[in-house]
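Complex record, two chains
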Amino acid sequence: NAGVTQTPKFQVLKTGQSMTLQCAQDMNHEYMSWYRQDPGMGLRLIHYSVGAGITDQGEVPNGYNVSRSTTEDFPLRLLSAAPSQTSVYFCASSYLDPNTGELFFGEGSRLTVL
Amino acid sequence: GENVEQHPSTLSVQEGDSAVIKCTYSDSASNYFPWYKQELGKRPQLIIDIRSNVGEKKDQRIAVTLNKTAKHFSLHITETQPEDSAVYFCAASPSGGYNKLIFGAGTRLAVHP
C-alpha cells in the first residue's frame, strides 16, 4: 500500500504561473482534503471532497481550485501563483465512517513562489 | 465557523517530566477531537483522539481529557523522552463531521536529556 502520494515534493514558481499539485490514495477513502502549513499557523483547510464529483471550500480556498473525478485522485490547482501561496501543502484522506475517522496525510509538497 | 486555539506555542521540558498542551474550540457541535504529532520534516500522524461522549482517554504515556462544558481539551504526556520532541497539533471536527478537521496552530515540544 502506497497510502497517500503527493507530487511534486518540491516546486519553485514565478508569480503568475500556474501549476497542479497531484494527490492520489489507494485506500479507497471517500474523503480527501488539502491543507497548507505555514509557520505559527498550523494546518489550514483549503478544499475538501466527500466523494467523486463533490467538492467544497475549507478555511482558505481563495486562489485554489480542486476537482474530484475519481475516488483515488484529488488535484489542487493554482491558477495564478502569488508569493502568499508559498507554503507546504499536505493532502489527506480518510473513510467517511465516523468510527474510522483517522486522517492519513501525504508527505507534503513544498512550494515556493518568487 | 470553528476556531481552535492552542497553548503554549513552545514547551521545553526535561526528560522524565510531564508535558501538558491545552486547546479550546468554539463550535459547541464539534464532537471529535484528535491530536497529531509531526516530527521534523515528516507528515502529521494521529497519536490519540477522543469523542464527545468520553471525558478522558489514555494510551500508555499519553492521555487526553475533554471538558465539553468549557469547550476545552488537553493532551498530557508523562515520563517524557527525547523522541517525544515534535510539533503537536490539536484539532476539532465541526458540526458533527469527523473528517473536516480544523487544527490549532501547534505546540513545539522539546524534551532535553
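Note: Chain A touches chain B at residues 31, 33, 35, 40-45, 48, 50, 58-59, 90, 94, 96, 98, 101-103, 105-108 (CB under 8 Å).
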